[in-house]
Amino acid sequence: MIRKNLSMLEEIIAGICEKCGRDPKEIKLVAVTKTHPEEVIMEAYGEDLRDFGENKVQELVPKMSALPDDIVWHMVGTIQTNKIKDLVGRVNWIHSISKVKYLKELEKRAARVDRVIRVLIQVNISGEDQKSGCEPEQLPEILQYAAGLKHVTVHGFMGMAALTADRDQIRQQFRMLRRLRDEHRKHETETVRLDELSMGMSGDYDIAIEEGATMIRLGTSIFGSRDYNV
Length: 230
Ligand SMILES: *Cc1c(COP(=O)(O)O)cnc(C)c1O
Description:
39% of the residues lie in helices and 18% in strands. It is α/β, with parallel strands linked by helices. An eight-stranded parallel beta sheet has the order 7-6-5-4-3-2-1-8. It starts with a helix and ends in a 7-residue tail after the last helix. The protein binds pyridoxal-5'-phosphate.
């Protein structure tokens, strides 16, 4: 099933890219494996996927230590300060940094293990859940703080659209994230780059690609529906 889903996705993504004049190579597929066991991840690995994402530290950590070293791991879910230490030894990307305090803890912990962690700043574009991302007005402060770090590099923004069937509304929210990215380019430094836009999930990745996504985070459309909601 994974193989069939992936080849379907490849075709759909190629079609969207052709329509909006983008190169499919600009778009990284992050396979979100939450709730799925290691065998399922290995099946996707066998199809040459290497970027995998999880939304909970306690699920990500055992998977990171059990699965092959060449997997690129993405933490995509809400982060907590006291969990950062469990991630830094292995995680490659954190998409969900929304506060200076997380950057501070990440810098401290990553320095201890002599690693550099790639992060995205999560921005609240849906206007809904206050926990999911910073407010746009906080971006300058966060980016300026990040510029002084040595073990954390910023690569762009992440956003989640509202859970709605209103596709125009979703498009407006993705468009806002891209606009915010463009506006904040002036804060770029050697270690703060804003090239990546992580936006789009199984229900809205087509809109996200049209609006400039460079990373799409797909679970259901690769692995099928999850047994229970997480
Ligand atoms: C679960 C999850 C996804 C993937 O969701 P699907 O709708 O199954 O594609 C993407 N991003 C985050 C942050 C998630 O928690």
